[in-house]
Every structure is written in structure tokens, then in C-alpha cells.
Amino acid sequence: LAHALVLSKLDYCNSVLYGISSKDLQRLQKIENSAVRFIFGKGKKAHVTQLLKKVHFLPVEYRIMFKVALLTYKCVNNLAPSYLKELIAIRKPNCKERTLRY
């Protein structure tokens, strides 16, 4: 129930949240933590790290990064819709650009 009502809202279009302020990330993380505590019936002071691992949830910041990486992967490998693929331009470096810079 908590997953359907709360966590699905966090995941919906969460790639748009990429680059939000740390204050807003903390707010979203508190919502996720509260939902996980509710799922397990734990109190306000219970630690959530192990609970997040039990239900295989990433912290909000990593959920957002994962979604962006997944969409990028799909675009590069022609698995995404054309309207998304058009937004990505793949740049192939020439030989001079392949050297490592220190």
C-alpha cells in the first residue's frame, strides 16, 4: 500500500528531479524513510538503512541517478522512444581526444 501510494509517486518522472537542491533531496528522503518505516511498522526513531536494503530500495538521490542512467542507456542502445533518442547526441572523439588528461 505504501509502495503504491507513496513510493510510486517518488519514482514517477524522478529523472526531472536531477540537480535539485540538497534540501529538497533531504525532504524527499524523509518521505521515503517514513514510507519504509510504515511498511515495517517501525517507530520514528528506527534506523532505515537496513530496512531500505531489505526491500531493495535505493536512497532518493541514487534512485534519480539510476533513472537518468537507465534512460541514457536506452537511448544509446535504441531501446527508448524516438522522442527521447532525439535529445541525445552521441559524440565520437577523434584520436587526439582519446589521450588521458591529468
Can you put this structure into words, describing what you see?
This protein is an all-alpha fold and 102 residues long. It has helices at 2-11, 22-40, 49-54, 60-76, 82-85. The longest helix has 19 residues, at 22-40. It is elongated and about 55 Å long.
By DSSP, the count of extended strands is 0
SSE string, helix = H, strand = E? HHHHH
First-residue to last-residue Cα separation: 51 Å
Mean pLDDT rating? 85
Radius of gyration: 18 Å
Biggest β-sheet strands, sense, barrel: none
Task: Give the fraction of residues assigned to helices.
Answer: 40-55%
Structural class: mainly alpha
Shape field: elongated
Count of discrete alpha- or pi-helical segments spanning 4 or more residues: 5
